[in-house]
Amino acid sequence: MTTVAQVIVDVPTLQTDKPFDYAVPQALAAQLQPGMRVWVQFGRGKRQVAGMVVGIRPVAEYAGTLKPILAVLDYTPVLNPEGLALSHWLAAQTFAFWITCIQTMLPTMLKVDTQKNVVLGPAPTAEAKALLGDQSALLLADLDEATTASVIRLLAQDALTLAYRRKDRAKVKQVEHVVPTATADFAAARATLRANATKQHRLLDALTQWQAAGTTPAVSAVVADGALNRADLVAGQKRGWLTLEAREVYRAPYAELDAQPLTQPLPLTAEQATVTATVTAAVVAKQNDTFLLEGVTGSGKTEVYLQVIAKALAMHRTAMMLVPEIALTPQMVHRVKGRFGAAVAVMHSGLSDGEKFDEWRRIQRGEAQVVVGARSAAFAPLTNIGVFIIDEEHETSYKQDDAPRYHARDVILHRAATHHAPVILGSATPSLESRARAAKGVYTLLHLPHRINDHPLPPVHIIDMRDAYKHGGKEDFSAELLTALEARLARGEQSVLMLNRRGYSSFVMCRECGFVVQCPNCDISLTLHMDSHTLRCHYCGHEEPVPSVCPSCGSKKIRYYGTGTQKVEQTLHELLPTARVLRMDVDTTRKKGGHARILDAFGAGQADILLGTQMIAKGLDFPNVTLVGVINADTGLGMPDFRASEHTFQLLTQVAGRAGRADKAGEVFIQSFNPEHYAIRYAQAHDYEGFFRQEMAIRHRGDYPPYYFTVRVTVSHPEEDQAAKAIYSLANTLRQALSPQAIVLGPTPGAIARLKNRYFYQLVIKYKREPALDATLMQVLNDTQAASRTGFFVGIDREPQSFM
């Protein structure tokens, strides 16, 4: 009887978003398992694609003859049963293709590329044979236009035919080692050599030492020493003295930390001890409780995390910890690896594909018991998980913008239910949704209201920038902030300055006619970057030179308006010429390890001022930082987003918490053109609970989350009228399925109506309970799938972080 494998093929369309039956060759019937990748023929032609086995059954649902599995790409499953179930749940939760969710959960190096080749066909001609020459196949991607034209003609004549080959990206790093032959008599071999055979004598001496010590050095280390080269080792292998053996090694991103002595648990305050005891009790009892840990900045949340993880490890279980930003990861990795050493694996997008693949394999093999990482680490193949931790749980970076549009918090809560493990959601400024769930008793609220050793929270001064320039302010700095910076420089203390906008200035405008240089692909102005003296679009990447004259009227009165981190850095050098400034934004951290290099340099005292965007607002802990300055607190307040006040309050509170975390007192200056705004005033008072009450009242009046659930539906097309027609048609379909209690906002053009030469329209559904909504949205996806061939794209985002 033929065994049947159910395979999800790597063709992300709704027509293929279901398992297809394939016959399992008899030789593989006992070995093939769900979670293995396979190579199959798909469709009516000879197209070959990768796929994932999601099930095995004895009888096929398909009545015809089944195509066989062509090859198995894995010796063991790359997704365990929990991972497969999680991928299926994720697809339904996010309205995404199942194969897309599977690929999201796996490292990039486990993706299989399909290579299209041409080989001799059933009716080969002399021209076809000449084209191939002495090669059996030609890769189509490598052919020039003239050759491609010939290939198309020969394919039509059956002189050539298409063939498909797989290219698996999964490459294991190997290092060659010198293994002395155990039975070799090096003394006897030396006696047979000529006296002037210097290198062979040198090799035999080395082999004698290695054999006696039982060591097998790496070839690279031997060659680097200079006494021997690879040719000498190859010659020794031919004589039977040694073997050159390739051994697998991990590309370990933080290997240098594993050799350091482990840190010891710190004594806990009474508040920390109470929190730790509460959570560890749930770990011991294997209770799926969710704890919202609301702790002010500097209250010792990280030490609580570490001691809870230690309890899980003591019970022979594992632990997962998420942090929101790559910028936060280096310091957190140092803390966690410092405590648990090589048991920790790290996963975030700042690693190379090879490093991510090797860390993933360490986790899958059970060689790592603790995972620390950003959003994608939520899918790490840990088993027997004892506790889940999400630090800075309020951060929007936990939500993915592209399909599958998941929130890491939802993934963690789902996995925690599977593993019967508690979850800690930690933050000084919890999201309103989480805090509201705690108020309802869905989450258990825990408090750390005081800093370690009772250090006070820093005083916060609000500077009204409307009057600042009348009282000695210069450029982007008030007199008060400049004076505070000069005082820190004189005392040898450090300062952190935040401006949530990168680049040199916001836009370039002609003062004669008002022309603003726009992106040709998006409805947004270009941002000036002075380091490259170019204008760039931060959405599509378009770049062009800065014009010397106005493209519209020919005037030379082109001026820069607004401000960015580059401009503030230049201003700092002019106003404080002795200050050493480090700038940390997307532009300075593009290269691998950029975040860690900047933070390490600042931590080592190589700079007086750290200037950056919001990536410096969270998680940084430097004892010599006594001043925090916010250049412009209004950057986010003017955004047309119902969460604008919440995000501003969280950002100001978090960045203020970077000051005075050790023995030296801290101070914070917040510059604003809107100093009376409640988000700024509550941040000044470090009053989260006050902000929570006022913001919840505003959300209630406006029917916004957390009082309502939301879904955003977006349609885009290269032609604006087509996008508009489609969104209005979808709105009619959805309204028919919704109850009168649901609220539909729109349709409206997107906040940026054109991006990458596509026009965007959207609508937002606010609801409390709509049983038919999910089925209707899935039907919308099915109905619009065919339209994607004509340029339409429909996106569905459950609980979007922004309506923009």
Give the helix/strand class.
alpha/beta
Residues in helix, %: 25-40%
Q: Uncertain segments of ≥5 residues (pLDDT<50)?
A: none
| Main beta sheet | 7 strands, parallel
Q: What quaternary form is this?
A: single chain
Measure the end-to-end span. 56 Å
CATH domain fold name of the largest domain = Rossmann fold
CATH architecture of the largest domain: 3-Layer(aba) Sandwich
Number of contiguous helices:
24
Taken together, the total number of domains comes to 7
Write a brief caption for the model.
It contains 24 helices and 32 strands. With about 800 residues, the chain is an alpha/beta fold.
Would you give an account of this structure?
It is built from 24 helices and 32 strands. The model has no long low-confidence stretch (mean pLDDT 89). The strands form eight sheets. A seven-stranded parallel sheet has the order 13-14-12-15-16-11-17, with helices on both faces. A six-stranded parallel sheet has the order 18-28-27-19-26-25, with helices on both faces. It has seven domains: 3-111, PriA, 3(prime) DNA-binding domain (GIY-YIG endonuclease), CATH 3.40.1440.60; 117-159, no CATH class; 174-248, no CATH class; 255-451, Rossmann fold; 460-502 and 564-696, Rossmann fold (3-Layer(aba) Sandwich); 506-561, no CATH class; 709-798, Ribosomal protein S10 (Alpha-Beta Plaits). The protein is globular, with a radius of gyration of 31 Å. Helix 20 (644-656) runs parallel beside helix 21 (678-684) and helix 23 runs antiparallel to helix 24. Helix content is 32%, strand content 23%. The longest helix has 18 residues, at 720-737. The protein is of the alpha/beta class.
